[in-house]
Design brief:
Layout: H1 3-20, E1 83-89, E2 92-98, E3 111-114, E4 122-125, E5 135-140, H2 146-158, E6 163-164, E7 175-176, H3 178-190, H4 204-209, E8 214-219
Parallel strand pairs: 6-7
Antiparallel strand pairs: 1-2, 1-5, 2-3, 3-4, 5-8
Helix pairs in contact: 2-3
Length: 220
Protein backbone atom coordinates (compact mmCIF):
# COMPACT_ATOMS: atom_id res chain seq x y z
CA UNK A 1 0.00 0.00 0.00
CA UNK A 2 1.35 3.43 -0.92
CA UNK A 3 1.97 6.04 1.78
CA UNK A 4 -0.80 8.21 0.26
CA UNK A 5 -3.37 5.40 0.42
CA UNK A 6 -2.29 4.50 3.95
CA UNK A 7 -2.78 8.07 5.13
CA UNK A 8 -6.21 8.23 3.48
CA UNK A 9 -7.24 5.00 5.19
CA UNK A 10 -6.06 6.28 8.55
CA UNK A 11 -7.98 9.56 8.11
CA UNK A 12 -11.15 7.65 7.21
CA UNK A 13 -10.79 5.46 10.31
CA UNK A 14 -10.49 8.51 12.54
CA UNK A 15 -13.60 10.13 11.02
CA UNK A 16 -15.65 6.94 11.38
CA UNK A 17 -14.50 6.41 14.96
CA UNK A 18 -15.45 9.97 15.82
CA UNK A 19 -18.91 9.58 14.34
CA UNK A 20 -19.49 6.40 16.32
CA UNK A 21 -18.29 7.78 19.64
CA UNK A 22 -20.84 7.67 22.44
CA UNK A 23 -21.86 10.97 23.98
CA UNK A 24 -21.92 11.22 27.77
CA UNK A 25 -25.28 10.57 29.42
CA UNK A 26 -25.97 14.23 30.15
CA UNK A 27 -25.70 15.14 26.45
CA UNK A 28 -28.92 13.28 25.64
CA UNK A 29 -30.97 16.17 26.95
CA UNK A 30 -29.03 18.75 24.92
CA UNK A 31 -29.78 17.55 21.38
CA UNK A 32 -31.22 20.97 20.53
CA UNK A 33 -27.86 22.64 21.18
CA UNK A 34 -27.12 25.39 23.72
CA UNK A 35 -30.08 26.41 25.82
CA UNK A 36 -32.07 29.39 24.65
CA UNK A 37 -31.23 32.58 26.48
CA UNK A 38 -28.01 31.48 28.21
CA UNK A 39 -25.83 33.58 25.93
CA UNK A 40 -27.90 36.75 26.13
CA UNK A 41 -30.05 36.58 29.20
CA UNK A 42 -32.68 39.16 30.06
CA UNK A 43 -32.09 41.26 33.15
CA UNK A 44 -35.45 41.27 34.94
CA UNK A 45 -35.83 43.94 37.65
CA UNK A 46 -36.24 42.42 41.10
CA UNK A 47 -39.49 42.97 42.92
CA UNK A 48 -39.25 45.28 45.93
CA UNK A 49 -42.08 43.46 47.73
CA UNK A 50 -39.66 40.71 48.82
CA UNK A 51 -37.05 42.99 50.36
CA UNK A 52 -36.44 42.47 54.07
CA UNK A 53 -35.90 45.37 56.47
CA UNK A 54 -32.30 46.53 56.82
CA UNK A 55 -30.47 44.58 59.52
CA UNK A 56 -33.22 41.97 59.76
CA UNK A 57 -31.97 38.38 59.80
CA UNK A 58 -34.85 36.12 58.96
CA UNK A 59 -34.84 32.49 60.02
CA UNK A 60 -36.26 30.56 57.03
CA UNK A 61 -38.26 28.16 59.23
CA UNK A 62 -39.83 26.01 56.54
CA UNK A 63 -37.33 26.52 53.74
CA UNK A 64 -37.16 23.19 51.95
CA UNK A 65 -40.85 22.35 52.23
CA UNK A 66 -43.35 22.31 49.37
CA UNK A 67 -45.38 25.49 48.91
CA UNK A 68 -49.13 25.84 48.65
CA UNK A 69 -49.34 28.14 45.62
CA UNK A 70 -48.56 27.85 41.92
CA UNK A 71 -46.53 29.57 39.21
CA UNK A 72 -45.49 28.90 35.62
CA UNK A 73 -41.72 29.33 35.75
CA UNK A 74 -39.97 28.13 32.58
CA UNK A 75 -36.74 26.17 33.02
CA UNK A 76 -35.52 26.20 29.41
CA UNK A 77 -32.83 28.82 30.06
CA UNK A 78 -31.38 27.30 33.23
CA UNK A 79 -27.76 26.19 33.06
CA UNK A 80 -25.16 24.66 35.38
CA UNK A 81 -24.89 26.47 38.70
CA UNK A 82 -27.96 28.64 38.22
CA UNK A 83 -30.08 29.30 41.30
CA UNK A 84 -33.82 28.73 41.67
CA UNK A 85 -35.64 30.67 44.37
CA UNK A 86 -39.32 30.19 45.15
CA UNK A 87 -41.19 32.43 47.56
CA UNK A 88 -44.53 32.01 49.28
CA UNK A 89 -44.17 34.85 51.78
CA UNK A 90 -41.26 36.57 53.48
CA UNK A 91 -40.91 33.64 55.88
CA UNK A 92 -41.56 30.73 53.51
CA UNK A 93 -39.56 29.73 50.48
CA UNK A 94 -37.25 27.29 48.82
CA UNK A 95 -33.97 27.38 46.91
CA UNK A 96 -31.80 25.04 44.88
CA UNK A 97 -28.88 24.94 42.46
CA UNK A 98 -29.25 23.61 38.92
CA UNK A 99 -27.29 20.56 37.73
CA UNK A 100 -27.46 20.51 33.95
CA UNK A 101 -26.10 16.98 33.71
CA UNK A 102 -29.43 15.59 34.88
CA UNK A 103 -31.81 17.90 33.01
CA UNK A 104 -34.42 15.91 31.09
CA UNK A 105 -37.41 18.17 31.72
CA UNK A 106 -39.50 19.56 34.56
CA UNK A 107 -39.88 16.19 36.28
CA UNK A 108 -36.21 15.17 36.11
CA UNK A 109 -34.18 15.41 39.30
CA UNK A 110 -31.70 18.10 38.30
CA UNK A 111 -31.81 20.53 41.24
CA UNK A 112 -29.64 20.09 44.34
CA UNK A 113 -31.26 21.21 47.55
CA UNK A 114 -31.79 20.24 51.20
CA UNK A 115 -35.33 19.15 52.01
CA UNK A 116 -37.08 19.29 55.37
CA UNK A 117 -39.50 16.41 54.73
CA UNK A 118 -38.44 12.76 54.52
CA UNK A 119 -35.67 11.81 53.99
CA UNK A 120 -34.55 15.16 55.44
CA UNK A 121 -31.25 15.57 53.66
CA UNK A 122 -29.41 16.96 50.65
CA UNK A 123 -30.65 15.42 47.42
CA UNK A 124 -31.66 16.08 43.83
CA UNK A 125 -35.24 17.15 43.27
CA UNK A 126 -37.42 17.99 40.28
CA UNK A 127 -37.77 21.59 39.07
CA UNK A 128 -41.55 21.19 39.00
CA UNK A 129 -41.52 21.42 42.81
CA UNK A 130 -40.63 25.09 42.46
CA UNK A 131 -43.92 25.70 40.70
CA UNK A 132 -45.81 24.99 43.95
CA UNK A 133 -45.07 28.49 45.28
CA UNK A 134 -46.70 31.84 44.59
CA UNK A 135 -43.66 33.10 42.71
CA UNK A 136 -40.40 31.62 41.44
CA UNK A 137 -37.23 33.09 39.98
CA UNK A 138 -34.17 32.06 38.02
CA UNK A 139 -31.00 33.75 39.27
CA UNK A 140 -27.40 33.75 38.15
CA UNK A 141 -24.19 35.52 39.17
CA UNK A 142 -22.71 37.26 36.10
CA UNK A 143 -19.46 38.14 37.90
CA UNK A 144 -18.67 34.44 38.39
CA UNK A 145 -17.17 32.50 35.47
CA UNK A 146 -19.21 29.58 34.13
CA UNK A 147 -16.69 27.00 35.35
CA UNK A 148 -16.93 28.41 38.87
CA UNK A 149 -20.71 28.28 38.74
CA UNK A 150 -20.38 24.62 37.78
CA UNK A 151 -17.96 24.18 40.67
CA UNK A 152 -20.54 25.66 43.06
CA UNK A 153 -22.99 23.06 41.78
CA UNK A 154 -20.41 20.32 42.33
CA UNK A 155 -19.94 21.47 45.91
CA UNK A 156 -23.68 21.10 46.54
CA UNK A 157 -23.66 17.67 44.91
CA UNK A 158 -20.80 16.55 47.15
CA UNK A 159 -23.04 17.03 50.21
CA UNK A 160 -25.61 14.48 49.00
CA UNK A 161 -27.19 12.56 51.87
CA UNK A 162 -26.09 14.97 54.60
CA UNK A 163 -28.74 15.94 57.13
CA UNK A 164 -31.20 18.81 57.03
CA UNK A 165 -30.83 21.11 60.02
CA UNK A 166 -32.42 24.56 60.15
CA UNK A 167 -30.42 25.52 63.25
CA UNK A 168 -27.04 24.86 61.63
CA UNK A 169 -24.65 27.78 61.38
CA UNK A 170 -23.07 28.96 58.17
CA UNK A 171 -19.71 27.60 59.31
CA UNK A 172 -21.06 24.04 59.51
CA UNK A 173 -20.37 22.07 56.33
CA UNK A 174 -22.13 18.87 57.38
CA UNK A 175 -25.74 19.99 58.05
CA UNK A 176 -27.90 22.02 55.72
CA UNK A 177 -31.07 23.77 54.75
CA UNK A 178 -31.92 24.66 51.16
CA UNK A 179 -30.70 28.24 50.83
CA UNK A 180 -27.62 27.61 52.97
CA UNK A 181 -26.55 24.85 50.57
CA UNK A 182 -26.74 27.23 47.61
CA UNK A 183 -24.97 29.97 49.55
CA UNK A 184 -22.16 27.62 50.60
CA UNK A 185 -21.55 26.41 47.05
CA UNK A 186 -20.82 29.95 45.92
CA UNK A 187 -19.01 30.93 49.10
CA UNK A 188 -16.57 28.02 49.13
CA UNK A 189 -16.10 27.49 45.40
CA UNK A 190 -16.42 31.01 43.97
CA UNK A 191 -15.58 33.16 47.01
CA UNK A 192 -18.86 35.03 46.62
CA UNK A 193 -21.15 35.74 49.58
CA UNK A 194 -24.77 35.80 48.39
CA UNK A 195 -26.41 36.57 51.74
CA UNK A 196 -28.01 39.98 51.26
CA UNK A 197 -28.10 40.85 54.98
CA UNK A 198 -25.12 38.82 56.21
CA UNK A 199 -26.82 37.32 59.26
CA UNK A 200 -26.64 33.96 61.03
CA UNK A 201 -29.15 32.49 58.57
CA UNK A 202 -29.38 32.87 54.81
CA UNK A 203 -33.00 32.66 53.67
CA UNK A 204 -34.11 32.07 50.06
CA UNK A 205 -35.13 35.72 49.86
CA UNK A 206 -31.56 36.71 50.84
CA UNK A 207 -30.24 35.01 47.69
CA UNK A 208 -32.84 36.89 45.68
CA UNK A 209 -32.10 40.26 47.30
CA UNK A 210 -28.32 40.03 47.06
CA UNK A 211 -26.94 42.64 44.66
CA UNK A 212 -24.60 40.10 43.02
CA UNK A 213 -27.43 37.92 41.69
CA UNK A 214 -29.38 38.84 38.56
CA UNK A 215 -32.85 37.64 37.71
CA UNK A 216 -33.25 36.08 34.24
CA UNK A 217 -36.56 34.26 34.74
CA UNK A 218 -39.65 35.10 36.75
CA UNK A 219 -43.17 33.72 37.03
CA UNK A 220 -46.26 33.82 39.19
Amino acid sequence: MSIKRACSALLLAVVVAGSLSVSPAWAAGRARGPKDGVGGRPDIPKETCWQTPEGWDERPDVAGSTGDGSNSLSFTSFDDGDIIVAIQSLSVGHAGIWDDRYDRGVSSRCVWSAVKSSPGCVLREAPIKYRTYDRAYGLWVPSVASWRRASARSYAAAQAGEKYDMSSSKSSQSRWYCSKLVWAGYKYRANVDLDANGGYWVAPVDLYNDTQTRCFASAS
